[in-house]
Amino acid sequence: MAEIRNGPEEPDRENRPEATPSDDIGAARELVELRSRAEYSADLERHVALVSFEPRRAGLPDVSIKDATEYLDKYHLERPWLSVARGCPPEVQRLFAALDQGHGHAHIRHEGWVTEEMNEHRVRNLEDPAQLDPARRRASIDGLTAGNVPHRCGDVASQITDPKIFAAAFARGVEHPDVRAALDSKGPRPEPVILPISNVLGDDGHKFCAGWQLEAVNGSMDEARAARRAWAAGNQSGPEPLARPVETFEGGTVTFAFRRSAAGGYEVSTMYVNPADEQST
Amino acid sequence: MNQAYWARNPDGPFATLIAIAANYCHPEVYNDAYPELIERARSAAPEDEQIRVFREELREALADPSRLPDDELSRAVQYDDGSSQAFLRRLWRDLYGDEP
C-alpha cells in the first residue's frame, strides 16, 4: 500500500495549491449544489421513498401519476388541502391523491395547508381545520364526521409544513416494520405506533414540523382539556383556554394510528408529529 | 422502536388498559374509533383475550386509581373529562352499563 501511495501516479499532495472558495471548481459546485452532504442524503432517501411508494401497501387505492394530476385539478377547490400538492413533483401528487381517496385525515389536519392560526384555534378552541363552513368551525363541529359531532383535539395541534416532506414521511413510515406489522395485521384495530421523528422524516426532519400546544391550568393538562371543552360548549365560567407555539420538535415523535380500509386490511387513520415532552402519548 | 407506553412496558401496570384507551379514545381517532370500541367490548368473543384483560384492568383502575402509573393514561389518551377517574367511569358506563 505504501508503494502505491508513494508511487509516480500518486498526486503530489504536499505541493498541491490550497483550494479556496474562489476556485473555479468550488464556485461551480456552489452553483450546482447548495445542500450539505447530510441534507443531500436526507433528500435522496425521501425521494427514493416517494418513487417506491405503493398506495395498495398502505391500504389505499392505486392511483397513476396521470390520474393523480387529474384528481387534484378536479377537486382542489372543494378540498383545499389538495392545493398545496398541485405544484409538487408527480410522485407527491400521486400520494396526496391516493390519501384523499382513503379515509385517513393526516393530509387534511396535519399538513402544510393548515396555517399557524388554524393550529392555534384548533388546540385552543377546538376549531377543526377540516371544517370548511366558518360558522360550524367556530362552533367546534367536526368537519369529517356526519352530523353535529363535536371536534376533538389533543394537547398539541401539529403539522409537517412542507408537502414534499409530509409525503416522504408517509411513504417511509408505512414501510417501517412496526407500521407494516400494523397495516398487515388481521385482528382488531392495531394499536398506534409512535416512532422518533428522525426515523421517519430524517435527521433534520424536526425542522419541517410546527404546532401549538394547550397551556396547563394549575399545572394540570386534565384541567386544561376539561376547561377547553367547557368553553367550546359555551360554558365560560372556568379559565379561558390558552395556547403557545411549540418551540421545537427536535427529539420528538411521529404517531401512526390505524383504521379499517375499504380495500381490506388497515390503512393509516392519521399521522402526526409530537414534541419531545409528548413522547409517551 | 415504538415509543408508546404499552410498547416500552408490555408487562407494565395497566399496559393493556392504556393501549386500548389510547387506541380508541385519543382525540385524533375518537370519532370513528370510540363506537368501534363499544361494539368490540359489548360483543367480545371469548377468544378476545385483550378485551378480557382490558376489562379486568379497567375494573382494578376504578377501584384504586392511585395505582395507575404517573400521568401515563392522561398523556396517552388526552381525555377531556377532567380526571382519569371521571374518564374511566364514563368508559365503564359506555361499555358495560351499570355492571359492577
Indicate the topology.
The complex is a heterodimer of chains A (281) and B (100).
Chain A: H1 2-6, H2 24-32, H3 37-52, H4 65-75, H5 90-100, H6 106-109, H7 116-125, H8 134-138, E1 156-160, H9 163-173, H10 177-183, E2 193-196, H11 197-201, E3 209-214, H12 221-232, E4 243-245, E5 253-260, E6 266-274
Antiparallel strand pairs in A: 1-3, 2-5, 3-4, 5-6
Helix pairs in contact in A: 3-9, 4-5
Chain B: H1 5-8, H2 15-25, H3 30-42, H4 49-63, H5 72-77, H6 84-96
Q: Could you explain the architecture of this structure?
A:
The complex is a heterodimer of chains A (281) and B (100). Helices cover 38% and strands 12% of the residues of chain A. Chain A is of the alpha+beta class and 281 residues long. Chain A has one domain (37-212, 244-278). Chain A is globular. The N and C termini of chain A lie far apart (55 Å). By secondary structure, chain B is mostly helical. Helix content of chain B is 62%, strand content 0%. Chain B contains six helices and no strands. In chain B, helix 4 (49-63) crosses helix 6 (84-96). The longest helix of chain B has 15 residues, at 49-63. The A-B interface holds A 103, 142, 144-145, 149, 152-155, 178, 188-196, 221-223, 225-226, 228-229, 253, 255, 257, 259, 269-270, 272, 278-281 and B 1-8, 19-20, 22-24, 26-33, 36, 40, 48, 50, 72, 74-76, 78-84.
